[in-house]
């Protein structure tokens, strides 16, 4: 069975095309569905094996980035989303998608039932749009970053400063839920955190954009990177390969069992 991906969009979403393409290149065809359609037909969530929350400026980033999208999910789709998490559906939220997952409280712990972390204004007070070096946390539980080496990714946001109380930061670090850190921390995030997962490693949110690194020439330095860089799978796509492999293995185990 080919894994099927749901990408959610609404007014102001702008990375759904890249995200759908990344999942498709990794082997999981994607359907982009408007949030209002899913609210009208919540059982559609059961058709999908993977879910992507795309980046952008949903609802104009009004109130705070991701807040309105998160509230709509909270009041209209929370139970079906939790059911998908309990079914083991991997979820990916990039940038605005991460802001949504954080504000909804699906990260860092979907069963906490409260918001524990946020993405606040960048420390500089400015929108930052550039490629930046990432450190992959080797012992994290995250299935999406498994086996990845340190790499560069593009970032583009004004509200990306990861912020949480010290006890939450201590807990997610001790629990292997910090998956990605900035090497030069351009936005002032607590403990350099760029991406975190839930305790199962399946729900993952990050501020940078792996879906914008689908081809070697996406990297601004690609002409200086050498032969190998041009022939290997771009690291951005490896995130999606990891999740697709996870789903396929799970399907095979279910058939075998
Ligand atoms: N790239 C994105 O997803 C958009 C940025 C985001 N809404 C912000 O904080 O500015």
UniProtKB/TrEMBL annotation:
Query: Which SUPFAM superfamilies would you find in this protein's record?
Result: Class I glutamine amidotransferase-like
Membrane-crossing ranges are none
- List UniProt keywords, sorted A-Z: ATP-binding, Cytoplasm, Glutamine amidotransferase, Hydrolase, Ligase, Nucleotide-binding, Purine biosynthesis
Highest taxon of source: Bacteria
List the Pfam families: GATase_5 (PF13507)
Enzyme Commission (EC) number:
6.3.5.3
Q: Name one GO molecular function term.
A: phosphoribosylformylglycinamidine synthase activity
A Gene Ontology term for the protein's cellular component: cytoplasm
Q: Which GO terms describe its biological process?
A: 'de novo' IMP biosynthetic process
Protein name, entry field: Phosphoribosylformylglycinamidine synthase
Task: Tell me yes or no: is Hydrolase among this UniProt entry's keywords.
Answer: yes
The keyword Ligase is assigned to this record: yes
